[in-house]
């Protein structure tokens, strides 16, 4: 069905004629909180290019430890943040599955960097997505999404488990909280800036 | 289908993508990246008449301001590849203006990253 939504003024890019669009990826394994993170910081209702996952497709993914989650994004969702009169930032999120390779290429091309959301209780599930990010040559920071009831994790153990470089930033965040998500993003951008010097 | 002639032209999900795009191929990806900003060309205020419903729909949405290619796919519910092809054709026809993101360069990156950092700090403290 072709829908022709009539969009409010706020849906459009403010000062679009002079804006430079940039993007940062928000990546992580299935159900780690990417959509929540993007939603907490985006100025528009997050959009997706694909449908939410159906029950039939759920059987394909590993659902252990994510009881209660009935839908998830299968492809890519994204949000927008107007930074200034010159720069508009897009945040793109997608799971770390190889089967979305075309989408990954689209997302990674020209991206400033990536924020990798990590569930401290399911660290091994983050290996694939970190491999992909490294494969595409993107600089990244780790944001440990603090889930209810999960005990805080020793950063050194986490660095070791994820085999991170010494200068890769690791922050803790609550993806539901705007300020906390913004802090994680700020940590990434500061790191990217250091790397650019 | 229950009707005697159950032809429902609006059921786009039953139409193969290459039908919507009239067999046209994917455009240059640099030209229409996910974050290329698109708007309707002011020279075409007159409503064109020979466009497909999908092209018309995209043009309608573009007429009120700038949106990224990804947002256009999100708002219309059309697959990204289809949206790209339709936008390329509309651009070729002079109906649209596109603003591709600047090519990445180290100096430009640094300036942009500084602006992003300052913007985040100003917005979220």
TrEMBL record, chain A:
MF-aspect GO terms: GTP binding; hydrolase activity
Superkingdom of the organism of origin: Bacteria
Cross-referenced InterPro entries: Gliding_Motility_GTPase (IPR052705), Gpn (IPR004130), P-loop_NTPase (IPR027417)
Pfam family, one: ATP_bind_1
Alphabetic keyword roster: GTP-binding, Hydrolase, Nucleotide-binding
The family this protein is said to belong to: Belongs to the GPN-loop GTPase family.
Full protein name: ATP/GTP-binding protein
Automatic annotation (TrEMBL), chain B:
Protein name according to UniProt: DUF742 domain-containing protein
Native organism taxonomy: Bacteria, Bacillati, Actinomycetota, Actinomycetes, Kitasatosporales
């Amino acid at each position: 069905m072709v829908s022709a939504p009539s969009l409010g003024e706020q849906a459009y890019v403010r000062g679009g004629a002079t804006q430079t669009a940039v993007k940062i990826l928000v990546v992580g394994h299935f159900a780690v909180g990417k959509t929540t993170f993007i939603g907490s910081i985006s100025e528009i209702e997050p959009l997706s290019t694909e449908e939410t996952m159906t029950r039939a497709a759920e059987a394909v993914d590993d659902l252990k430890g994510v009881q209660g989650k009935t839908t998830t994004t299968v492809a890519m969702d994204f949000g927008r943040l107007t930074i200034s009169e010159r720069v508009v930032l897009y945040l793109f999120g997608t799971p770390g599955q190889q089967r979305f390779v075309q989408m990954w290429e689209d997302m990674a091309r020209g991206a400033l960097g990536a924020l990798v959301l990590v569930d401290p209780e399911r660290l091994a599930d983050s290996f694939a997505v970190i491999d992909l990010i490294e494969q595409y040559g993107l600089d990244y920071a780790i944001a440990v999404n603090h889930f209810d009831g999960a005990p805080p994790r020793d950063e050194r153990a986490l660095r070791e488990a994820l085999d991170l470089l010494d200068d890769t930033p690791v922050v803790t965040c609550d993806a539901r909280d705007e300020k906390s998500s913004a802090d994680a993003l700020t940590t990434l951008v500061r790191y990217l800036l250091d790397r650019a010097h | 289908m229950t009707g005697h002639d159950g032809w429902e032209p609006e059921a786009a999900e039953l139409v193969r993508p290459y039908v919507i795009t009239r067999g046209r191929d994917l455009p240059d990806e640099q030209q229409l990246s996910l974050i290329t900003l698109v708007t309707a060309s002011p020279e075409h205020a007159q409503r064109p008449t020979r466009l497909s419903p999908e092209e018309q729909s995209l043009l309608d949405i573009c007429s009120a301001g700038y949106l990224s290619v990804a947002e256009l796919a999100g708002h219309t519910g059309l697959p990204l590849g289809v949206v790209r092809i339709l936008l390329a054709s509309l651009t070729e026809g002079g109906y649209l203006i596109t603003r591709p993101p600047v090519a990445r360069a180290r100096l430009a990156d640094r300036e942009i990253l500084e602006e992003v950092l300052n913007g985040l700090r100003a917005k979220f403290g």
